[in-house]
Amino acid sequence: MHLSRAQLNRKLVKLLGCSALKLIMDYRFFTAKRLLRETDAPVKEISARCGFSRHGAFCRSFVLEFSCSPSHFRNLNRRSYNAASLTWRIPLHETDMLLLQQMVAEKTWLNKLFATVLARIEDSFSSEQLAAAAGLSICTLNRKLKELFNVTPQRLVRDIKLQYACELLSCSNETIAGIAYEAGFFDPAHFCRCFKTVIGSTPSDYKAFNPVAPVTQLKKILVNQNGK
How far are the Cα atoms of 29, 129, 150 from residue 154, in angstroms, in the given order? Predict the structure, then answer.
C-alpha cells in the first residue's frame, strides 16, 4: 500500500472503523463460518485454509469471537440449503447469499441471467433481452422466476441493482447520486424512492447504520458460477 503501518491503520479506521488486523481477522472468520457450514472439511484443514498456522490458535480465537468452538458452531448451523428456504427479499443477507449461490450453481439459466445483469448493471434490460440472456422464452422465464422467487424479470433486475447499491452504501464514500448511477439508476430521486420502498429506509440512513459489507459480494458469489 506504500504506507506506514500507522498511516494504513488510521486510514482504515476512518474508512471502515477498524484496523488492518481486525479487517483481516473478520474476513478469516467469515470464510471459516462459510466453510464450516458448507463443507465437511476437518476443522484443522479449515483453520489452515483461513490463514491460521496453528489449529489451537484458531480454535481459541473462534471461541473468543463467537462463544463456541468451531465444531459446535458447525453442529448448530449445519443445514440443507434448498430453494424452498429462500424468501426473496432485499437486502440479501449472509444466509440468503449462500442459498442463492447454490441455486445459481445448479440452474444454468439463472446463472446466465444473473451474470448478464451484473456484468452490465448500469444498463436497462427489456424482457426480450433478459429471456435471451437466460436462453429461455419470455413466458418460460416469467414462469420460472415466479416459481423460484415470486418476482417478474424486471423486478429481479431492479432488486439486483438495489442489492448492489446496498453493498456500495456499506463501504463506499461515494455520494448517494454517484451510487445511484453506479448501480444502474439514471435518476437519483427515483433511486431514493425505490430504495425506501424496498429497503424501508433512505439510502443515507442505511449508509449510517449498516455494517460494512464487501462491495463485490454479489458479483463474487454469482458471476464466477458460470459453466457449473
Answer: 36, 11, 12
**73-89 per-position pLDDT tens digit:** 887 765 544 555 567 88
- The distance of Cα 53 from the centroid of its chain, to the nearest Å, equals 28
Closest to 223 (Cα-Cα) out of 131, 100, 128, 94: 100
pTM for this predicted structure: 0.61
Contact 156, 127 (CB under 8 A): no
Q: Which domains does the chain show, CATH number per domain?
A: 5-77 (1.10.10.60), 84-223 (1.10.10.60)
Instruction: Judge contact between 99 and 83, C-beta under 8 A.
Output: yes
Higher pLDDT, 101 or 61: 61
